[in-house]
Amino acid sequence: MLAIFLAPVYILANVFTAYWLLRWMKEVHPLFRHPAVLGVILVLYAFFALSLLTSFLIKRDPVHRILKVISNCWLGMYLYFLGFTAILVLLRFIFAHTALTKTWLYSPMGLKAVGLGAILFVTGMCIYGMVHAVHIYTTRYEVPSKKDAHLKIALVADLHLGYSIGSHQMEEMVEKINAEEPDVVVIAGDIFDNEYDAIYEPDRVADLLAGLKSRYGTYACYGNHDLDEKILAGFTFETKEERIADRRFGEFLDRAKIHLLEDDVVCIDDAFYLAGRKDPDRIRKTQETRDTPSELLTGLDQSLPVFVIDHQPSELTELAEAGADLDLGGHTHDGQLFPGNILTGLMWENACGMKKVGDMYSIVTSGVGLWGPPMRIGTKAEVVIIDYGKYRYEQARKEKEAKKKQKTIDIKEVRLSPNIDTNDLNTKVNAARKFLSKGDRVKVTLRFRGREMAHMASSRHVLDDFAKQLADVATVEKAPKVEGRSMTMFLTEKR
Prior knowledge:
15 helices, 6-stranded mixed β-sheet, Purple Acid Phosphatase, chain A, domain 2, alpha/beta, single chain, elongated
């Protein structure tokens, strides 16, 4: 219904921009004042402006597909032209009611220059947006965890397979994901762009997605666009009839080896839980219901990580309280077109990026595909790679390696007597030298018996001589000390 209400606004906006466009062109050159030339310009303008409606009415391919591409491109460019026209008209109004009337900017020459500058700037920006939109970037996040797990997750969303997104983007996306060797791939909704027939070569696209490689496979939830609906300028028509998803959507996912989770929870390899939520806008149209976060996640083993796939990043606090560790979403496109990223930031608790909510982390991707205009300005198409539990894992690994590197120092004992002869002493010295070379500590014990106890002090030279013979490889850690019927000394390897 929104499309119907916006139609008069769209018509008035086009009358506004067409008026100022013609006025500017008449100032640029007298040729544009000729009725025939004006007629051609108006016909071309009307063709592009009405392409939104004609693409909706004409369903026969390839005309329908061509008109859809034209209308999407026009919509993106027109929004910026409208914005700049409104700003320039406002400035002109301000100039007309101030002393600025006498400035160069208010003159006919100023009108020509400013208008040309605006046209060139908007055109250049839109061309950049179209080129920028087809390139997919990789964004990385590290998510700490108190749970004993380390997983690499590849997150994508908002593929919007259709008139603007097809095999080229999917091929690049698959290559980037496979290069990361993830444990699991997650698609957070809006796989389709409402019309299954909009997908060019669907079998090829499905085969490309089936080529996603991960340890545990590919899982997804549906988004608000994963429903066959009539669309006009990106807006759908409300109906009292129950909506049913095109069966070809499910067949496509089966061929693409994508496991759909609709208020389902699966425990994967006894290592982690993965839950997929139904989309709130979609269930409203299909007259279904969806579980609350607590209903969905009740009864789970909280010693395992709990990951939730939810197309729209909503109910974050509720998910955190229900025991989710990580919420994965999309939907926002990060605004897609500047200043849309500013507006989405005001609308959503987490419009894009990573945010901690309670003990849970919310990660929202700007998506791979496009809604409407085939351009991105101020945002980027992305594949998100998440290292979950990496910090804890790395710390544990480092501690384990450190323990391996730690050398156990044993204490070896060498026993002497006050009356030891030279040969025996040399034998004991050589034994101590071997112990020291292995990194062991050496305890040298001088033992006394009977009448030898009366001469303990004078026998200390035996330990001193022993230490001197090892002075090249050892240092005295503890000086000789009397302990009962013995005198002990500790030696360590010289560093």
